[in-house]
Amino acid sequence: MESATTVTMPSLDEPGLSKQDVAERQADGRGNAVKTSSSRSIVDIIRANVFTLFNGIILGAMVLVLLTGSWKDAVFGVVIIVNTGIGIVTELKSKRTLDKLSILVASDYLVHRDGADMEVPHDDIVLDDLLWIRSGEQVPADGAIVETWGLELDESMLTGESRTVRKKAGNDVYSGSTAVSGMALIRVTAVGEHSYAAKITAEAKVFKKTTSDLNKGINTILKVMTFIVVPLCVLLVWSQMNAVGGWSHALATGQWRQAVVSAVAGVVGMIPEGLVLLTSLNFAVAAMRLARKNTLVQELESVETLARVDCLNLDKTGTITDGGIAFNELRMLDGDEDESNAKQALFDLSNEEQPNGTGKAVLEGLGREGFAGGAVQARVPFSSARKWSAIVSYTGTWYMGAPEVIISALNGDYGNVLDMVTENANEGNRVLLIAHRSGQPAEDFAENPRLDATARPVALVLCSERIRSDAESTLQWFREQGVRCRIISGDNPVTVGAIARKVKLTGDREPVYMDARELPDDIDELAKVLQNVDVLGRVLPNQKKAVVQALHKDDHVVAMTGDGVNDALALKEADLGIAMGNAAPATKSIAQVVLVDSKFSHLPDVVARGRQVMANMERVASLFLVKTVYSALISLGVVLTQIPFPYLPRHITYLGALTIGVPAFILALAPNTRRYIPGFLKRVVLFALPGGIAVALSVLLSTWLLPGIMHWDMTNAADLTQLRALNAIILFVLGILVLARVAQPLTGWRGLMVLGFTVIGAAGVAIPFVRHFFALIVPRGSTLMATLVVLAVSIAIFLLCVGTARVLAMRRQAGKAAKG
To answer: Which CATH superfamily is domain 294-321+469-606 in?
Structure first.
């Protein structure tokens, strides 16, 4: 709603739009409202977490068991609820946090309608509005300048160029830029989704799921197991029906229920359900820990991705620098000039009614030294046309501006001064020149300003972009970790190269910089060029995206930081997009990681957390996959030999919790800084095979041989229960050995953990409720002797399989070394 406001503004002849004009434009969609979404919708998040392959398999198995009435054997289904809940809650929390972060402070803007100025909300601006842009305001819509009163814009969010731009009447202005000084009246030419910024970010706002090696590996296991599980499940049901006397007998006596439960025992064992749960939980815990350090993780998998990154593309403004300007020093050129007078003159020259960024930096810097405004008799404000400003004081006339412009107007040869200017500019400084003339200027100086040729250069004003205090140490950390960092900016490559030198981007080596206008268009050629380039300047938004594509050509895992709209496309193209907290809302919406307080120094925390997730989850995956391997092999052996299934689903629930589930949780959250090594799935499979084969062989041999030795009748429920309980003991002991192998080295807390779960497992059998609920026994008499013999044989088989695997692994490594 419009509300009249009392604002003193220049008078205008044009009345602007009428209320009817505004109403018509709002009715037909020519208003400035834009539908924004900072992240996935709630429905998308729920759908992605509920409808998974894993959930489908486990849910199907649980329903089958529940149909038999054996609810104790369906406890494994609880993992669906827990796993899905963790994923949904964590992503919803991230969404809420980001949505809050993305909401800009609602600002009203001054428009000229019906011959009067009035404040309206951002969304109520319409096409053809006459809109005032005042210092400090962000431009809300595209427009053309009707009239300007020294408007100076910061367009770095759009172009990446950190220098401010003076605007003239007729110039275009774009939404997303910010007025740093002056004022202007513009006519709105594009609103809402038709604005320049909205067009750039439209493509970037399409949701892109982060690629996770960990999830890819787990999903590969699940897909392979799906192809095995479906036919094997059918065969298991068929074999178990035969084991209880055939289909007719099973259906007539109700023993089909036990046959189904036995078949599900094999199916559930093959699915590493705890691994999927623990992966989600581990990502969630990592995201929560990072949140405490003001790092927001939009997608859980992105915690892992930075552990794999080997190329980090950094946007200069907002990442290496904070976007502000710092006054470095006043370097005197004339030894006869009083430095205190020169500094006072510099303060007064900068102390305009609406100083620009450089002026503000000078005022802040000299203010700390105790300088304050002096007596100024006359002033010529800075003009982009003149490129200099001037004041008249009791010490004479002082000029400040672009060195080449001032020197060209002076008498004398000051080539040495220009050389000093160039030298300082190449070091990343913004250089201004101060010239001085004693005495008073002409009487019409203020009305007809001109440079006096008799003035002489007295000092250089050196300013630079303010470099973040944490930039150098953070870049050093990445170098030590083997991550190649590049700075990609819209600024002058010489300036960016100088900043890269200051923060030691390449350590002791001189960084190689290049103008992006010289880059080849062909992606393959660009990939070759980038191998030897550390800094790119004058980069356009589409070139940032091309740089990421070129690095992908060489199989690099690329992360990209940014804060402006011009970074959005590159952030989306990268394997991992990292946005600063003060970034444009559209940029934050497509980034997987947001550094809420805009501190570059948080990135090592993200990398370290990612490495912890990857290294620990490799241990955990190895632990879970052993169960998958032996379950598949035991199921195959059961089908081929038509024997009753060797154990129950509840045995797997109990033993899995003590030898896999809970220990895996502890191992997953333990400190681990190992660098990421490609080949996650291959290493996990090679680790799991010998242990899985040993367990399967031990259980099958026990099931095949013990009934004959102990004279057990497998059609007798008591004898079958005893055999299955004995096999549960074998599974527990070998499970502890597998855990000990995964947890190595067994020093400190790791050894105590393995010992603790061994004691807990054995003690649990002594508790009547636990023993009866999970169908366990305490061996006695001849059964005890048989158990000890079987365990000894099983341990020998385990050591033989693991030892053989180690020998083969050593031979493979020796072969690779010989070839190398």
So the answer is: HAD superfamily/HAD-like (3.40.50.1000)
